[in-house]
User: What shape does this take?
Amino acid sequence: MDLGVYQGSGSGDPEGDAMKNPTEPIKMEKAIVHDKTYFLQVKNHPWLSLTSFIVILCLWEIVSRMSWTPPLFLPAPSEILLEGWGMLKTGVIFNHVLASLSRILLGFSIACVMGVLIGILIGFFSIPEAIGSPLIAATFPIPKIAILPLLILWLGIGEPPKVAVIALGVFFPMVINVYTGVKNVDPLLIKAALSLGSNRTRVIRKVILPGILPMVFAGMKLGIGIALLLVVAAEMVAADAGIGFMILTSADLMQTKKLMVGLIILSLLGIFFNWLFQKMEKIFIPWKQ
Assistant: This one.
């Protein structure tokens, strides 16, 4: 056998083929690597969310129109929208929404300020932590709406007890989140700031506050939901205006469509505040994005 002829004519040798035809590119097979982390990628599905919402509304409308449930128990979404439009034209709805918003914003603001201050205090200093942590652990489980009669007894009938019960409800998630955030700040950053000559005030302002901002916004998102719950409960007990008062009055008069309008307003307020806090989070915590 002529070994030289055999080696030159072998089509399975890529080097021999390349030497025989130097102008022809060498064909290399690509290795297929499957990405096993694709499920970790966060994807937005806005159209899926919108479609599912529209489908639920359509099913609700069909169930109501087919009289599968009495309209008194489950009115159609179109009828609820017409009822809400009528309340908008008369301006009745604005009085209730503004009354509830004023109570929510005042109580929420007081709770946020006090929660951040006390959370930093008990998280950064040992003596306040020894005093405050048992008190918070003991009072946090108490239902805040159960304290409303006592607040009415102390503060009288009016706006103060409603604002106070909202502030109490929002205070606990705020202070617990801030306290946790302070404890999770990297100790090396604190030691580095102290070694460079910073005092405690400057450490809190330059190291602690930026480090706890994600937990502050987490507490605010939890707190606004609690504020919406408590304002409705407080207005059902002692109020002459507000979303809770409107819902209770509508239930007493069997005005289901008006009651559903109140529930939709609460849902829209929750969506608005969540969107607002997300935008604020992007502004104040750009490094988190």
Q: What stands out?
A: The two ends are 71 Å apart (CA to CA). The chain has one domain: 79-288. The CA atoms of residues 182 and 209 lie 8 Å apart.
